[in-house]
């Protein structure tokens, strides 16, 4: 069988959980899943009331939901401080002294924070931030690596009711600047530097370049991860303050009191903004609310990872992406889980690092991405073979479609044929997993993301909205609002409506294509809009294009994806240079560096191709479909080219292949 994603069309293998796994699972069989799913759809109020009983609400909801397209409200009238569900509630149970976070730095040192300690740190930071003028409703940007303090910072914001905007540490200064300016953040929390594959990422230095152009920032809080020798930084008097100095002054009585007994906020209070790529050059500030988001993250984490007091759960995502928000922070902590947090790269110092971590700490649940799995395959089986992986009991995958061969490798080599795999489909906008299997109940099919999670009314439809038949490809849509869905795009309600709710009236359009098989299992193909998924990173083609045309030599640019064995999709850009400028290797390098600077290294094109002209329709639109074919090396261009302005453009592009 080929290792291409299309091989999923012929996939017939099935794997059921062992009796031992099912017997101790929260959802033990298909009937239990069906009964709860039925209740979640027919009586969502009863379902969510029961399932959120263990969360802390200071005032109960008076109405379960309200829906005025495109705005949903859930748990209407409820009051809560979300951090009480993640921290305080555990302090009176035997979770109190359990590890909330077991952290391992890339150089190998470890730290453990119990729930008691995490709570203490969050209280201290939130009191200190209050003393520095942070109030509920303020926006706080967080630009950090994978250190426990990033979790503390997020929770301290949530405790105060300040809306956090975490910006992935791989983003450039320019990208950070734009995100801060868009939400007018008042404070930036960062760190001196972070380890990445043996190198220091100078986060504070990058932040300094951003903050030089962000008038809203009043304070920059700097956590010292590296120390001055490894990563010297410049502190700007009056603006910058070390995290340790911030906490070394006793907070005022009033702020401490407030941090210990925090305010309860409205269910719809904005919890966080997370910027993600869409089909225009400007990233979208996806805004999530408090109660609905917490409910979604909590209930999905509980059932899908089947969390138990004996588990050590490891989600390898970065805190700067939504997976880090929902499944490193809010979902696991609200369940009292013990979470592993790892700072660095999977191949530092060698490709055995993940497996070494699993052996060292006894990780039981591993949640990672197909792109990582494909890299592990390439690095060779000898690496996992060196380590004892017998502690693992459950595996998860997220972020992009997984090809059956990678899935089988994950099952056989990492799971040693013992661990169920949950392939979870969801998005920044959905807040929580929407499609998955229940690990103790369902048979899995390599490459399928399984069935709808509770409360999720999801379908595959044709252009006009009618449901597709079994195995018929179409658009993946969600018919009804759900508690953890995004509430809007920060400052751009019209775009929220337009991007998600206008393709088919009243229905949420995911941007993904999918099919559903005869058993009701979903097979997600990937994006069908102008968004790429490169090595699990979501990148808008328009973002790349607008970055490229800001280079002084570029007249026009088009970015497309091409299938890639390792990354899922690779980024190919077609560039027309301004008159007289030569498209050579030096120019390719310069364009690559320009993308590093404008967006971040992770968005650097895999291939730059120069063209005298780009194929366009008569009305002037770039014909991306044709460029995708050219990039993929499809010899004969498929489909209709009758609207193409100049067919010779296409011939030249094809001839120009490298
Ligand atoms: O195309 C789908 C893909 O990732 C997109 C969402 O990207 P983002 O908002 O960055 O969130 C990623 C982590 C949740 C989706 O539209 N995607 C995510 N998970 C899967 C997936 N595609 C196939 N299978 C998945 N399990």
Quick one: overall form?
globular
Distance between the termini: 28 Å
Which structural category fits the helices and strands?
alpha/beta
CATH topology label of the domain at 551-655: GMP Synthetase, Chain A, domain 3
Q: Round the Cα radius of gyration to an integer and report it.
A: 24 Å
Strand content: 15-25%
Helix content, binned percent: 25-40%
Low-confidence stretches: none
Most strands sheet: 8 strands, mixed
Text of the CATH class of the domain at 551-655: Alpha Beta
CATH-level-2 architecture of the domain at 551-655: 2-Layer Sandwich
What are the distinct ligands in this entry? adenosine-5'-monophosphate-propyl ester
Supply the CATH superfamily name of the domain at 551-655.
ANL, C-terminal domain
Biggest sheet: strands side by side, in what order?
12-11-8-6-7-14-15-25
What is the count of β-strands?
32
Instruction: Enumerate how many helices there are, as a single number.
Output: 21
Kindly report the average pLDDT value.
Answer: 94
What attributes does this structure have?
658 residues, alpha/beta, GMP Synthetase, Chain A, domain 3, eight-stranded mixed beta sheet, seven-stranded mixed beta sheet, 23% strand, binds adenosine-5'-monophosphate-propyl ester
Characterize the structure shown.
This protein is an alpha/beta fold. It has a domain at 551-655: ANL, C-terminal domain (GMP Synthetase, Chain A, domain 3, 2-Layer Sandwich), CATH 3.30.300. It is built from 21 helices and 32 strands. Strands 12-11-8-6-7-14-15-25 form an 8-stranded mixed β-sheet, with helices on both faces. The protein has a 7-stranded mixed β-sheet with strand order 5-4-17-16-18-19-20, with helices on both faces. The protein has a 4-stranded antiparallel β-sheet with strand order 23-24-26-27. Helix 19 links the parallel strand 31 and strand 32 (607-610). The longest helix has 17 residues, at 115-131. It is globular, with a radius of gyration of 24 Å. The mean pLDDT is 94. It binds adenosine-5'-monophosphate-propyl ester.
């Amino acid at each position: 069988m080929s290792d291409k994603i299309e091989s999923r069309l012929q996939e017939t293998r099935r794997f059921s959980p062992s009796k031992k796994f099912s017997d101790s699972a929260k959802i033990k069989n298909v009937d239990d899943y069906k009964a709860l799913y039925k209740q979640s759809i027919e009586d969502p109020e009863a379902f969510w009331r029961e399932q959120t009983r263990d969360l802390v609400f200071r005032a109960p909801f008076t109405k379960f939901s309200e829906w005025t397209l495109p705005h949903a409200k859930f748990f209407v009238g409820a009051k809560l401080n979300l951090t009480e569900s993640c921290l305080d509630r555990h302090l009176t149970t035997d979770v109190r002294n359990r590890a909330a976070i077991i952290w391992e730095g890339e150089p190998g040192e470890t730290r453990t924070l119990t729930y008691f300690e995490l709570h203490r740190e969050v209280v201290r930071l939130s009191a200190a931030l209050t003393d520095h003028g942070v109030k509920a409703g303020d926006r706080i940007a967080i630009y950090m690596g994978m250190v426990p303090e990033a979790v503390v910072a997020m929770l301290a914001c949530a405790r105060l009711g300040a809306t956090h905007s975490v910006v992935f540490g791989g983003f450039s200064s320019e990208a950070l600047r734009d995100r801060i300016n868009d939400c007018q953040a008042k404070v930036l929390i960062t760190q001196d530097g972070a380890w990445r594959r043996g190198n220091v990422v100078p986060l504070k230095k990058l932040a300094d370049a951003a903050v030089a152009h962000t008038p809203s920032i009043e304070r920059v809080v700097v956590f010292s991860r590296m120390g001055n020798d490894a990563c010297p930084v410049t502190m700007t008097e009056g603006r910058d303050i070390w995290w340790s100095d911030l906490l070394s002054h006793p907070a005022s009585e009033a702020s401490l009191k407030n941090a210990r007994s925090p305010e309860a906020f409205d269910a719809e209070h904005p919890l966080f903004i997370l910027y993600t790529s869409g089909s225009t050059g400007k990233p979208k500030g996806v805004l999530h609310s408090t109660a609905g988001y917490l409910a979604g993250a909590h209930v999905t984490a509980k059932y899908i990872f089947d969390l138990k007091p004996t588990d050590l759960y490891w989600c390898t995502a970065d805190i700067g992406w939504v997976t880090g928000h929902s499944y490193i922070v809010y979902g696991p902590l609200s369940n009292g889980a013990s979470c592993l947090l790892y700072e660095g790269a999977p191949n530092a110092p060698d490709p055995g690092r993940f497996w070494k971590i699993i052996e060292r700490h006894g990780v039981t649940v591993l949640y990672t991405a197909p792109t990582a799995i494909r890299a592990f395959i390439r690095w060779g089986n000898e690496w996992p073979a060196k380590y004892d992986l017998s502690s693992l009991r459950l595996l998860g995958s997220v972020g992009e479609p997984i090809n059956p061969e990678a899935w089988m490798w994950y099952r056989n080599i990492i799971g040693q044929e013992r661990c169920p795999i949950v392939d979870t489909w969801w998005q920044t906008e959905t807040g929580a997993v929407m499609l998955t299997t229940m690990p103790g109940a369902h048979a899995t099919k390599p490459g399928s993301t399984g069935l709808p999670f509770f409360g999720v009314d999801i379908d595959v439809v044709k252009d006009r909205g009618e449901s597709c038949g079994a195995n018929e490809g179409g658009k993946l849509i969600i018919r009804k609002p759900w508690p953890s869905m995004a509430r809007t795009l920060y400052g751009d309600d019209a775009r929220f409506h337009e991007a998600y709710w206008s393709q088919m009236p009243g229905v949420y359009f995911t941007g993904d294509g999918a099919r559903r098989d005869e058993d009701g299992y979903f097979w997600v193909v990937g994006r069908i809009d102008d968004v790429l998924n490169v090595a699990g990173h979501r990148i808008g083609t328009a973002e790349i294009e607008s970055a490229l045309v800001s280079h002084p030599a570029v007249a026009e640019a088009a970015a497309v994806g091409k299938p890639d064995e390792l990354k899922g999709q690779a980024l190919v850009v077609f560039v027309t240079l301004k008159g007289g400028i030569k498209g050579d290797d030096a120019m390719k390098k310069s364009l690559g560096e320009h993308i590093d600077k404008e967006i971040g290294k992770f968005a650097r094109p895999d291939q730059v191709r120069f063209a005298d002209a780009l194929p366009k329709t008569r009305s002037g639109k770039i014909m991306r479909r044709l460029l995708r074919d050219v990039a993929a090396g499809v010899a004969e261009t498929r489909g209709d080219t009758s609207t193409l302005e100049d067919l010779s453009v296409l011939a030249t592009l094809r001839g120009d292949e490298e």
